[in-house]
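#structure-requests
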Amino acid sequence: MRKKRLFALQYSLVMLLVAIVLSGCAGEQQPGPSVEEPAAFATLAPTNTPAPPPTPTATPAPLTLFLSEKLPQGAITLENIGTVNLSDDPAADLWFGPEGDAPSGELLHTASWVYALAAPFPTLADDITLNTLGAYWQGEPAPPLERVEKLYVPEALLPALGDRWGRPDPGRVEVYQNPPAVLKLWDTNAWAILPFEVLEPRLKVISIEGLSPLFKDFDPASYPLSARYQLVLISGLRGAPQNAEIAAIMEAIQPGNRDPERMTTLVMTGVTALVRGTAYRMEMHGVLYPAEKIRDWLTEADLTHISNEVSFYEECPFPDPTSPSLLFCSNPKYIDLLAYVGADIIELTGNHNNDALLVHGFDAVPYTLDLYDQYGMAYFGGGRDMVEAKSPLLMTHNGNQLAFIGCNAFGPDFAWATAESGGSAPCEDYQWMAEEISRLRAEGYLPIATFQYYEDYYDFAVDHHKRDFGLMAQAGAVIVNGSQAHRPKAMAFEHGGFIDYGLGNLFFDQNWVIDMYGNVIVQTSWEIIQRHTFYNGRHLSTELLTAKLVDYAQPRPMTPQEREQFLTELFTASGWITR
């Protein structure tokens, strides 16, 4: 009994010590089981209670998109919007339309659209004020719009122009969804405000207070015929799938219809012959003297074409402005003039390219072509032999593929290249050139054909002009130019191409000439410089810059009165009604 009581007392002391120790551990907030739940219980095997099932989530419905009826054609590619559903409800998840109509919400994307004021090509007006356009809108036409029968306006621009000028006069302004046909504008003497990308050379772009979308320094923000369209998110995002859908919509929306990275401007000119009176004044006033008044026209372009008819010869005599000789050469230092105007492309169809061989016994063609190579100037229409002379010059700029090809119809025989010698490409029966143009067009190029054709001093075109130039347009040339004419000649639009039967002189000393009948012709001092715009693989526009030759060497921009007289004569010779 004594041993049992002793054992019980010892057991009680041990349990008391354990309790004290456990109480001290709890006071130090050490991790582990509490006194109420000894550690031994923590090691018990878990029960087999099943976990609750996951909460099901609903698949979000596709986003809905509202498209305003005022959107321009091509603003969004519907085939690329994925699973998004189109809606007639302006309160859909997403809204896309004119900036001025946009609802409140999160702005996701803005597209800019540029329009151009266009008139039939034989229109004399070049520029109008915004007030003049507004007066016509309100039914009060003033010059130069007093004879314009109608103005076609895209529905997409109606809100912006209406905010500016109020309700349009229904007798003068017609709203359209699809642009009017070009022939309709010609037949009715109507103008149209057209999306930039649908312009074509049969229409003349009229600038507004000096602003034109054809100009390289064009700023859409300051142009009154620009419009902005916005994509607005009205409802909040509902999950990751909607993010992908919105990305697809933004990808389907075009950023705009005028991308400078898709534009190419090309300037083309008429006869250049740095000889006789022109060369003499270059010696007196400096090599760059002829271009001082029009240089900006030539250097502003992406590509500048010069038809230089005369080869360079190192021993070329000092120029004589009174010489009756028609056999020429040019001092090699004169090439600095071509570099000064930014010449990129030299046409070699001229009939004076081999004069130095005939007069001085020197084959100047290889030397001249080496000089062009040294200055980085490409060339076509001639070469070191027949193969090179007939080969087209292929150029790609901002995605626009251009092909230049030319020939010499006039001769003389010694001006033509042969299998062994240099010169211009002979036109022969024109079939080789037409076939090459067709091949180039089929390969995606825009062919540009030029002729050193038969010379005359009339402004109209006769049957053989129409036949031979028309053959090139029919084959697929987008531009066909006569580089032989010393007097500017008529123009035409045939088979989808622009034809100019003769641009006149550029740098050549013909202030005037006397023809075989004794008539004094001053129109040899009138000059056409063409400025062409290509966009996204299309020939978009042709502009006519006009100059007058003075001092036998230096063209200057025409005055408004001179320009009106000149263009009226040209349009009449072309069989067109001047507008």
